[in-house]
Write a structure and sequence with these properties.
Elements lengths: L17 H17 L3 E7 H5 L8 E7 L2 H6 L2 H4 L9 E10 L2 E9 L2 E9 L10 H9 L1 E6 L3 H9 L1
Parallel strand pairs: 2-5
Antiparallel strand pairs: 1-2, 1-6, 3-4, 4-5
Length: 158
């Protein structure tokens, strides 16, 4: 999908505040709770640590039964009700990072949201992948956990 401006150019944001991030998280929670194939959701990174910089994006990990199907057919992104929480969808791009993929979503007023999709096996505790361990031990706030897998992972990493 084409963006109105390049995602590779430097971002110039107003600083998202906690109320705005809470509203964006609510939109993503609506998606995850409404789909049986999405099994869990956690906020990661600087917003989870409580120390976001003015240019920080909101990082959300979503555990999915078939994340590649969500990558192939990305109509679900346009169904997210960003306008209900004061934002307008401008566009997105996708990136693959090893066993996960991310949708980098651009919103207005200027904000960026990174939704990272992982297979259920990403949360396996036998064994715990080092990349997974790094994400979880850095900052990992579980918000939805339909099967208990994310909490088991968090407990195993602590």
């Amino acid at each position: 999908m084409a963006l109105r401006r390049s995602l590779s150019r430097p971002w110039h944001f107003h600083h998202m505040n906690a109320a705005e991030t809470d509203r964006l998280i609510a939109v993503i929670q609506w998606l995850v709770t409404g789909r049986d194939d999405l099994r869990g959701m956690a906020v990661c990174g600087s917003w989870a640590r409580g120390n976001p910089r003015p240019d920080s994006d909101l990082d959300v990990l979503i555990v999915a039964q078939n994340p590649d199907s969500l990558r192939r057919d990305q109509k679900w992104i346009r169904e997210l009700n960003f306008s209900d929480v004061g934002f307008r969808y401008l566009g997105h791009k996708s990136s693959r990072y090893g066993v996960v993929w991310s949708a980098h979503i651009e919103l207005e007023p200027e904000a960026k949201l990174e939704l990272t999709f992982a297979k259920e096996s990403w949360a396996s505790v036998h064994p715990i992948d080092q990349g997974t361990r790094d994400v979880v031990t850095d900052a990992f706030n579980v918000l939805i956990d339909k099967d208990g897998a994310l909490q088991r992972l968090r407990n195993a990493c602590s």
